[in-house]
Specification:
The chain is mainly alpha-helical and 99 residues long. It has one domain. The chain is built from 5 helices and no strands.
Length: 99
């Protein structure tokens, strides 16, 4: 069975999608500018951990929200220095001297 080439995307649709990408980019940047530094850091840390967990368990069924929250919180706790906004981690005095 031979595959037929995918139909070309009409120019008006390509233009519309590009317009929506630009709108989303502007809207997200405006939203982020309205966030506090802490809110941005929390989103960043949660997004990174969510991505890490997703990559580690890509072959599994997506668990419920409570299990996801527990798994991410546990992983953030285990790597507290990587997620300081969530965990409240601060370097010990001797760790600051090493830098």
């Amino acid at each position: 069975m031979s595959q037929q080439p995918a139909p070309a995307v009409p120019d008006f649709l390509v233009g519309y999608l590009a317009q929506q990408d630009a709108y989303r980019f502007t809207a997200v940047n405006e939203m982020l500018r309205g966030c506090t530094e802490r809110e941005v850091l929390l989103m960043k840390e949660a997004a990174v951990m969510g991505w890490v967990q997703g990559r580690m368990h890509a072959d599994q069924k997506i668990p419920g929200d409570r299990q996801i929250l527990f798994t991410v919180a546990d992983a953030c706790r285990a790597y507290a220095d990587l997620y300081p906004t969530i965990t409240g981690w601060t370097p010990a005095d001797d760790e600051e001297d090493e830098e």
